[in-house]
Amino acid sequence: MSNRKLNVFLPLLMAVVLALGMFLGHKMPGSNTGGTTVFFTKPDKGPVQEVLDLIKTKYVDTLNTETLQQEAIEGILAHLDPHSVYIPPSQLQSVNEDLEGNFEGIGVEFNITADTVNVVSVISGGPSEAAGLQTGDKILKVNDSIVAGVGITTDKIRKLLRGPSGSEVATTLLRNNKQIVAKIKRGLIPLYSIDASYMIQPEVGYIKISKFSAKTYDEFLEAMRKLTKAGMKKLIIDVRQNPGGFMDAATRIADELLGDGKLIVYTKGKDFPRTDFKTKRPGMFEKGALTILTDEGSASASEILAGAIQDWDRGTIIGRRTFGKGLVQEQYDLDNGGALRLTVARYYIPSGRSIQKSYSNGRDAYDEDITNRFNHGELVNKDSIHITDTVPYQTASGRKVYGGGGITPDIFIPFDTTRFSPTLMAIYTRNSFSNFAYHYYTSHKEEFAQYKDAEDFTHKFQTTPALFDQFKEYAKKDSVPGMDRLSAKDETEIKSRIKALLARQLYRSQGFYEAINATDPVVKKALEVLDKEN
């Protein structure tokens, strides 16, 4: 075709195409309704997204669409298992920090009493210690924000104090009735998952694991090295009230306790092929006598550890039946900054049993399970334990064990209901123990200088009659009823708790557990069991 003919033909062709496009555009669905079309068809969003889009663009009133989306997601997840959850953007950081084992902040523990932020403890080696903060300081201002006497909440003060590592925050403090300004350079603050590790008796080590985070295995190795060096030949691992966390942390710890090539756990789901997790390396403690302490708050990764130890007859499980969570979640980040934690598989411990309790009656019934255990008498009587899966499984030695609702301990220790009389319940709900311990410590610091460490404090400190009377007067002012009619059991509990919380003021969680374990019946039983083993 000649250039001249092409110059005539092209404008004509473009005009025809333009006219055709305008005609088809007028005829396409949605052209006069505000709807969108792509290549003659609507995009396949699904009805839920379509409804949300229509509400957003057409509804008569202005709505918070983020709230609508969250409620829609939660409504869908309510038809799944209880552990598939939506994490909104506002909560994702704190959830991830807890599992990652650190956060960026100033490194203090605080409480709020009488509308005042009190520094309860200063993390050793942290930014606040470097800036000179002390237990007993009261925080009045954070930068230009007044935080005293303004109805401050824990979340608000946490947001003010936390920030990127290396950034600076100015705090105005009240100390000995004088105001001082401390400038603190924020840093990376560890969130420890091992609350205590110490020699509870000659040759017997104790490790308390509060959760299974990304740092738990490293913490466990460090604790084991310390205890081994101190002469440990027998071990108590306490996972009571441990809600779980990373499965990898539990399997790696199990690898330190079991022989080579042993199955720890396997996972399997509809679109999740069976995956076996076995021991891979020589462990630090494959032979010594071992006990695992559990209760109804021990869940998920805690149950993997306890279940593997029980199924291989490696140690003795002592306490009460565990929670019963045998589901595996994967976390998927969402475009809005939140995340979906979705159940993708079940896990099975070495005997082949699943320990996931039933959720067929809905989430409300599932959430009330622990309360129902109490009401049915299970927490105080082993014979009341209700096993939903009656198919027997066998441990390595041929002992019968059961699935379908947690790990049933080898030795049952009942829940001590007498520890929660109406008076004691009032003390706990008013936080009177912690508040009293804080005020007593800050006004008697010089008296505690004589103790060199948590062990020394536990052996030497006693809750004297004078100290006990001071607490009684404090509790009365706190409107605690029945302080003049205490039973002998109440008095023993109060004295023990005061000592433990003063130990916590001095030595944080390590001090608390060293003191409280001295009278703990589950720990006492573990020591009896270990004493009988070579």
From TrEMBL:
<protein>
    <submittedName>
        <fullName>Carboxyl-terminal processing protease</fullName>
    </submittedName>
</protein>
<dbReference type="InterPro" id="IPR004447">
    <property type="entry name" value="Peptidase_S41A"/>
</dbReference>
<dbReference type="InterPro" id="IPR005151">
    <property type="entry name" value="Tail-specific_protease"/>
</dbReference>
<keyword id="KW-0720">Serine protease</keyword>
<dbReference type="InterPro" id="IPR001478">
    <property type="entry name" value="PDZ"/>
</dbReference>
<comment type="similarity">
    <text>Belongs to the peptidase S41A family.</text>
</comment>
<dbReference type="GO" id="GO:0008236">
    <property type="term" value="F:serine-type peptidase activity"/>
</dbReference>
<feature type="domain" description="PDZ">
    <location>
        <begin position="92"/>
        <end position="162"/>
    </location>
</feature>
<dbReference type="Pfam" id="PF03572">
    <property type="entry name" value="Peptidase_S41"/>
</dbReference>
<dbReference type="InterPro" id="IPR036034">
    <property type="entry name" value="PDZ_sf"/>
</dbReference>
<dbReference type="GO" id="GO:0004175">
    <property type="term" value="F:endopeptidase activity"/>
</dbReference>
<dbReference type="Pfam" id="PF13180">
    <property type="entry name" value="PDZ_2"/>
</dbReference>
<keyword id="KW-0378">Hydrolase</keyword>
<dbReference type="GO" id="GO:0006508">
    <property type="term" value="P:proteolysis"/>
</dbReference>
<keyword id="KW-0645">Protease</keyword>
<dbReference type="InterPro" id="IPR029045">
    <property type="entry name" value="ClpP/crotonase-like_dom_sf"/>
</dbReference>
<dbReference type="GO" id="GO:0030288">
    <property type="term" value="C:outer membrane-bounded periplasmic space"/>
</dbReference>
<dbReference type="GO" id="GO:0007165">
    <property type="term" value="P:signal transduction"/>
</dbReference>
